[in-house]
Structure formats: structure tokens, C-alpha cells
Fold this sequence. Notes:
The protein has 6 helices and 34 strands. By secondary structure, it is mainly beta. It is globular. The termini are far apart.
Amino acid sequence: MKKYIKSSKRIEGVVFRTREEAFIPRKMWLIMKVFLLQILAFLVFGGGIHCQASTRRLTFVVREASYTRLCSPKNILTVNGQFPGPTIYAMKGETIIVDVYNRGKENITIHWHGVTMPRYPWTDGPEYITQCPIQPGSKFTQKIILSTEEGTLWWHAHSDWTRATVHGAIIIYPKNGTKYPFQKPDTEVPIILGEWWKNDVNAVRDEGLATGGDPDPSDALLINGQPGDLYPCSKSGTFKLTVDHGKTYLLRIINAALQEALFFSIAKHKLTVVGTDGSYTKPLTRDYITIFPGQTYDVLLEANQRPDHYYMAAITYSVAPKYQDFYDNTTTTAIVQYSGYYTPSSPPSLPYLPAYNDTNASVQVMAGLRSLADAEHPCNVPLSTSTNLIYTVSVNSYPCVNNSCAGANGTRFSSSINNISFDTPTVDILQAYYYNISGVYGDKFPSDPPLVFDFTADYLPLIYQLPSSGTEVRVLEYNSTVEIVFQGTNVLAATHHPMHLHGYSFYVVGWGFGNFDGNRDPLRYNLVDPPFQETISVPSNGWVAIRFKASNPGVWFLHCHVERHLTWGMETAFIVKNGKHPEAQMLPPPSDMPPC
């Protein structure tokens, strides 16, 4: 039967407004001290939020809403009742004020993922790192300061596992008078990849912590909030992208999944990567891409095939054996449908995707990415470094009485960086640093692994599985040039780790499998046109080297973006000290920082 498919229009986000509601909870003496110091700073410095005529103001109301997926309804936490949440459209260099009202039942924070927030970590968002959470019934006014970012970023909750449903796109256009470094697309479409659990996602988290084992995998993968045709009770809601033959579409792809790295492809169509993590790249054409949690890609799709229906699809990339049931092994789909009169194929064609455990396939895009490195988009990679760090990233375990836990061999899963599993404080590190409050964190995070061994050997002594624990950070001098080598290990499980650094983008100068060789591997670094990213995945049993200049003072979180690894302790922070001049120093806090 022939159908006529109308041409598509651009998808817009909607932001609703409501009136303010707030309350002040009871505080312990330490929190009262922080609060009084905040007020003093506000009176002396004038506060951190100044709404100018050119500054746009948005409203985010965090509240529960009922959504039905996989045949059953469930209350989920949303922003403005939308899932995925509203898209923020901005221009390069713009500043946006967002009033965040927490009308939900749980604490919340919001993070602007990939926005470097120059000199202003106060509204960056990670819970107990740069702020205490926004409590139910409260409000926090957050400032998004855009600077060099251009392309696709995203925002998400940064407390517990609420980002499973509290997330949305940030689309940053070129400044007036400038243009894309590629032919302007006819249409732009956010493609947000995610996960869905039938149960409450924080209950899944809590059960995993209680048993000490891996949390239950998701029940479905999602494209723009929908599982797609291959799941029960889902076909009517499948996301559809209508295209006109001969036109070019810019897909702004975001991996908002809590746990899963994803292979993504569109049947019989090539994908051309032109940007990642808010920075443009040389065009890279592939049949599929691998996108790790936290990452974004700008991808051009040319509608150059015979008019028909074609599946776009995503599956999990995982090195875990299928029988262990540690990952979501389903397939999410959406439909690319050409406009015009024709009889569509039923069902549509499925695309080629690699085997779920194909590690070589998982690094093909990373291996080919290059920054533009031209006059309009210079590459300022540090050619030498003053601070050299080697950070091992490991899955570990703690022993349980009578081997009674659900982790490996009856243990409790944990994770670490340089064998330190992070203990989350109860007062955020930024306020403790700014107001010189002792006892919240230590500043002795090691520059190198405390134990050096064959990190990627097939069999390692059990003694290496036990980490230490603490709230340790690393202090960096202002304007120091930093190199971090992230070394994956096979301590308990060899797997990938998408490492995300707040407050900075960095140059990915090298990567490889096996153990990093400090004499040989730097000779192969790309110091000409390395990609500029803020989330990079350490390959399974491999390493990645990044470089950046520590020119953004403040407290900045570093963590794995696989949510269970973050929950288990694979995180730390940098404190970047102020420079000598006022323009090289951290700005004062806003007056309404959430109390602890």
C-alpha cells in the first residue's frame, strides 16, 4: 500500500515557567558556618548571578510525571514533565540563567555536561563536589557560561541515578557572522540514546549496593525516549525521522545511557562525523559509530537512498559474556522514512552493527578522529607538560563476611582511580576549599599508581583487588600544562571506562592496547590535530593519554561516566589554584547556594 509521508520540520524544545517555592532546612553548625560565609561573600563581592538584558532566563521544574513504556506506566523524575527533557538552544559565547525548582521527592542537582564554566564552578552541578543538592521544595538559580563550545552538548542530573530520565540536549550554534565548517544542513535533529528500567532506577541502584553485586541491567534501550518496534507495546511510539531525498540532516547524537556504550547505525546510509563534545572535527565517514556514556557526536546523514523506511538502531557494546546478564542485550530502533509516494518495506531494513563484544570495532571512530586545526579552529595542544600523571582505572572488590555478597567470589564490587575508591563527603569540596573548611577532603591524591605491575595481565593476584578509600583530590597550579595517562587494568574485570573531566576539554594525544610505555608510546603522540573532547573512553585493557592547560580555576570533578563505576568510587577531583591577576581567579559564589 502506497503512503504519502510529509516532510519533517525542526524539533524544538519547550521550557515552561512557574512561580518560586522554597524552604530552608535545619542545619548543623558546620553548614551554618558555610551559609554565613556565603552571605558575607555575597555582600563583599556582589554575588555570582547578574541578569543582564542580553541574558536569557529559562525555568526547569523538576517533578514527577507518569510515562508508559514496555506495557506498564511508571512515575519518573522529569524536567517540565518532558522525557527526554527540553532542549536548550544557544549561541557560542552566550550566558543563560536557569531557575531550577525541585518539586520532586528526591534531592537533585543539574550538570551542564561539557560546558567549561570559566572561573565559575559554583553551578557546574556534581553533588557534594561543587554544591550540595537542591532539596525537595527548594530552588537554585544556575548560570550556564558558554565560551569556546560549539556543537552538541547536554545537561543531566548529577545526583544518585536520576539522570536516567532527567536529561536533555544543549545545541550551541556558531556566532553571528560565522558558519559551520561544513555545508549547512537542511535540518538538525537531536538523537538522544538512553535506557529504561521497569523498576524505579534508584531502587535498582539501592538493591545493587545492598547486595554488593552488579545492578540489574536496563529492560530497554531508547532512542529519543522510545524503545522502538522490537519491544512489546512499543511500536506506536517509535521515533520517526522524515527525510526528503537529496537533503542533508545533522544528527546531534547524545549517549545519555547510565551504563551502556552503544554501537549506532542507520540501514544502508553512511554516517559522517563532523564534531564531538562541542568541538568540530575533520569529516570522518563510517558505517556505524561507537558512542560511550557521556559523549556526543555531530553526524551528517545524506538522504541519498531509494525512498523507503530504514531502521536506525543501537545495541550495547560490552566485553561481559552474554550468560552473565550484566548488560542490556536488546536492540532499540527508530525509523528514517523518506517523504513521497511509495510502498514502504515491512519491516524496514536493519543496519549492520558489529558483534556486541567487538573491541576492535569499538575504537574505530576514536582512532580516526582529528580536530580541524585550521585558522578558524586552532589546535592549542600543549607540546610539553609540567605535570605528568598516570591514573589507573580499575574495578575492585571489598571482602564480605562469609563471602555473602553478590560480587565476584562473594565480595562487594567497588572501583578506584590509582587504587583509591572515593568517599563522597557531606559538605561539598568547592565550599570547603573556598572557605578553608578543614576535614572535608585531603589533597594528597597520588600522581602515579601506588602499586606497579602488569596491569593488563590475564591473571592477577587477589591482593590487587582490594582498594583503599578516601576523599583525596589533586591540586594543580594555575596555567600548568597537564598530561594524564589513564591506564585500564584487568584487576577484577577488563572493561572500558569513559572518563569525563568537568571544567575542561582536553586533547586526546594518544591511545593503545596493553600497558602504557612511557619511553615508546609518547613518540607516537598526535600533537598536530588531536581531537578536543571532554569524555574519552579508556579501551578495555588499554590506555589513553590526554593533555590540557589548567587555566580554569576552581574545583573540577573527574569520574567514569558508567554510572555503577561512579557509584562504586571511580572518581576524584582537581583543585586548580587561582592565578595572580583578577581575570585568572575564581568568581565569587551566588547568594543562593543550596545548604547541606
